[in-house]
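Structural prep section.
Before we set up the soaks we want a predicted structure of the protein with S-adenosyl-L-homocysteine in place, mainly to decide which crystallisation condition to try first. Input record follows.
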Amino acid sequence: MHKEINLTIKPEYTKAYQNGYPLISKESIVDWSRVTEEGMILHLQDSKKRFIAKGYHGKQNKGYGWILTSQKLSKIDVEYFKHKINTAIKYRKTFYTDKSTTAFRLFNGEGDGIGGLTIDYFDGYYLFTWYSMGIYTFKNLILEALKSSVEYKGIYQKKRFDSKGKYLDDAEDFICGTKAPSPLIVKENSVNFAIHLDDGAMVGVFLDQKDVRKTIRDTYAKGKTVLNTFSYTGAFSIFAALGGATKTISVDLANRSRSKTQEQFNVNNIDLKAQEIIVEDVFNYFKYAVRKKLSFDIVVLDPPSFARSKKHTFSAGKDYVNLLKEAIQITHKNGIIIASTNASNFDMKKFKEFISKAFKALNGTYKVEETFTLPKDFRVHENFKEGDYLKVVFIRKL
Ligand code: SAH
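Run finished without errors. Recording the tokens verbatim:
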């Protein structure tokens, strides 16, 4: 059973919760010290003890919990979770019938009404990602709700929180049903992806970039040379190659990226001869490219929002301008830079300022061809715009 307690919101924060802001912060609560364990259900009330909303405590880098309902009488039980999951399924009805794309996000955290939890669909398999111990305490209820709402081949999970040595009932990613083959081959706009549901923190593809990948393949790649930096498993390179790129170069410093990228090329029957995979620090590669006077028709930049390598610390908010400057120098005139970031601490407006600054510093000019944010299945909460973290800009260097 989950403990339930009443908490009082500080007056200056009451309005935000009343208006539907979903993230619970410690500073907004008068008597936070009474919150003693993750998963506690918090009844937030104003200073006159009037009910405002109900949420749970779960510690994430984002905050201390999420609002679940503004209905005082609503219980946080299996029925509650079933209702949320079924609403999410309805919203993605057409995704289930699309044979050319068999992987998508079924449940996107607060965008679907429960912060701290995502559920991804991979051709009949479901993957929970738990972002806090707090949401994980509801696992049995949520699992039961999912099982009774969908037909599934198998169900997996990833835990993205530090359990601090606490005993967890299971260490496994696999929960129930039948185990998926490894790799499991799914499709995205008719392209194959090799997915590993049971091999570390990540499965091999970031589903939020699907519209960007399709656009690269359908509109930009034909006859072009493509440098894909921070390439991970090479997803952008795969789509570029299938769109007719003459050559792709994928650069990532993680050793695993070489075999993972080869695997993605292989499952799409792409000849590896025209594809280069380089395991190296991107910042070294830029220096090398400048020295060798290399340049490309398309340069993809998709860095993590924060990363530390042996020589560099990269933080998107501070260093994206410099990253762009490096890329501009090795992009052909009339070439395209695809600048992407998933940093949630700045918005599209700021990101476009970074682009403007970088070109200005090099006395260059450019044109924004198109921009992307999250695709439809990555539903965003209307009162939590920070949740719309993805920003991708296709920039033509003039
Ligand atoms: N573009 C990828 C996702 C990138 S994830 C895709 O479409 O799937 C970020 C990647 O950046 C990780 O694989 C990480 O290994 C890599 N990385 C982080 N810092 C790096 C650096 N300095 N040089 C090269 N790769 C780096």
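Observations: The chain has a mean pLDDT of 95.
Flagged for discussion at group meeting.
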